[in-house]
Amino acid sequence: MKKYLIIAIAIGSLLNISCENMSIRKECMLGLSCVNKKDYTRAAYWFHKAAKQGDSVAEFIIGDDYFYGHGLSKNYIKARFWFKKSATQNYALAQYRLGELYDNGMGIPKNYAKAMYWYNKAAAKGLFSGQIRMAYFQMYGHANGYNVTHYPNLSYTLRRKFYLKAAELGDAWAESGLSDNYQMNRIREAFWLRKSLKEGAFISVTGDYILSRDYYLGQGMLKNYVKAVYWDRLAAMNGMPVASCQMGKFYYYGQGVVKNYNKALYWYKKANSQMRNGYYACSTAMGLLYEYGDGVPQNYSKAVEWYLRAFASPTAEYNLGVHYMQGTGVPMNYSKAMYYFNAAAEFGLPDAAIELGRVYRHGWLGVARNNIVALKWEILAKAMINASNKMEYHTLNKMIISTERKMTISQTSTAQTEATAWYAMNSYWLTHK
Fold first, then answer.
1. Stretch among 32-46, 79-93, 171-185 having the lowest mean pLDDT
2. Exposure string (b/e) for 228-245, b if CB count within 10 Å is 16 or more?
């Protein structure tokens, strides 16, 4: 339907200008009449006759027929031929369509420089689709591998102008782009994101999840778990693993829904089934179900299996350390326990840092007693926890004081220096937990 709306716009532009060649006007009118009758083959016949007479609008329309395969066999090479004839006559829609062909490698090798060239031509003619693509290239080009170094950067103000104008005209793609452009203002972002989803933006699945996240965190709107569940479910039902995993967490913790471990298990399994090798981010959650027997029989061996499938999960790393330390679900192995405690601590998990402090203070797990290293981890654990957790904060302070009493001033200073150096090297994880 959108394709024929474009044709109608193109024909309208033809009929609204002074046309000396009445033959072209007549043929295009006959073509449009056939479109209205859904006789696309006959429509293509009349547009082709007009295109052969060199009219830029007719050339664009016949190119579009080849592009979509309406009335003619889909053929991107022939579509490019007609689009280029029209584009060289400065017809903006054809210039934009040429940009699409190069952008997506349709019938020709991908060439982002040429895509940018034609998008820029269309944008210069005032075509908002071209302006939107130009804004998109400027905002995300480098991240997506586009070569935009030969084009002047659009200012953020100009980008917003392009997106805002197109969004006011009901362009859902632009509305989603405007959402990104307002990242520093979450209220505006939420408004445009909701609007883009209602308009059916191409990013609808990702948009559903982002909107769910915003309701969950209270970003740009009041925190609302019920609405977070609503939007997340839409994304999950459309095959987004991270959304399915989040649905499981909603049911596990009873946020926005009644707590239900069986439903949590269902969504966790669904998240893993949506990816070929399973969804690693949900593996920790599955492990926790078996760890505590929530909705499934308690089974430490299965918990360990799921933890081992997790990737970059400090909770999974720490729990593996505990299992290897205690010999539950796996044979006892102090070396592996230390490995996983260290891995969890490197991701900024305070429980792991506290455990390492205890290990070195008492000389457990086959390591020599070392108060300097113990104090280093205790200091780091204090830096990792939330200061508002007064009980944990107070407990750590007592541990630090107890360890310092067994040390010289020089040893304490060494521990503090080592903790500061470690923090500087691993601060990313501590600030992006």
1. 171-185
2. bbebbbbbbeeebbbbbb
- 3-state SS, residue 291: helix
pLDDT at position 395 is 85
Q: Give me 194's structure tokens.
A: 């909701």
Cβ neighbours around 289 below 10 Å, total? 22
What per-residue confidence (pLDDT) applies to 131? 66
| Token code pair at residue 248 | 């499981």
Q: Find tokens 């007064």 and name the residue.
A: 390
Query: Residue 174: its pLDDT value, please?
Result: 42
Ordered alpha helix ranges (H), 89-240: 92-104, 112-124, 128-140, 156-168, 172-181, 186-199, 204-217, 225-237
Residue 364 pLDDT exceeds 90: yes
Q: Helix axis angle, 56-68 relative to 76-87, nearest 10°?
A: 160
- For 125, half-sphere exposure in the C-beta direction (CA atoms, 13 angstrom radius) is 18
* Mean pLDDT, residues 40-53: 79
- The residue among 74, 104, 98 whose CA lies nearest residue 84 is 98
**What global pTM score does this model have?**
0.55
In terms of Cα–Cα distance, which of 99, 34, 96 is closest to 71? 34
What residues have CB less than 8 Å from 160, skipping those under 6 apart?
Answer: 178, 181, 182
Distance of alpha carbon 232 from alpha carbon 208, whole angstroms: 6
User: What pLDDT sits at residue 167?
Assistant: 44
Per-residue pLDDT at 21 = 54
**Best CA proximity match to 55, nearest among 78, 32, 22:** 22
Contact between residue 101 and residue 83 where contact means Cβ atoms under 8 Å apart:
yes
Reference 189, options 198, 177, 201, 199; nearest CA is 177
Decide: residue 390, CB within 10 A, 0-12 exposed, 13-18 middle, 19+ buried: exposed
Q: Which residues contact 276 (CB under 8 A, 6 or more apart)?
A: none
User: Looking at the predicted structure, is the pLDDT value of residue 57 above 90?
Assistant: no
From 22, 24, 29, select the one nearest 8 (Cα to Cα): 29
Nearest partner of 64 among 120, 126, 24, 8, judged by Cα: 8
Work out the pLDDT band at 173, boundaries 50, 70, 90: very low
Q: Which amino acid is at 84?
A: K
The whole-angstrom separation of Cα 57 and Cα 24 is 10
What value does the mean pLDDT of the chain take?
76
Token readout for 21 is: 């060649």
pLDDT over threshold 80, residue 125 = no
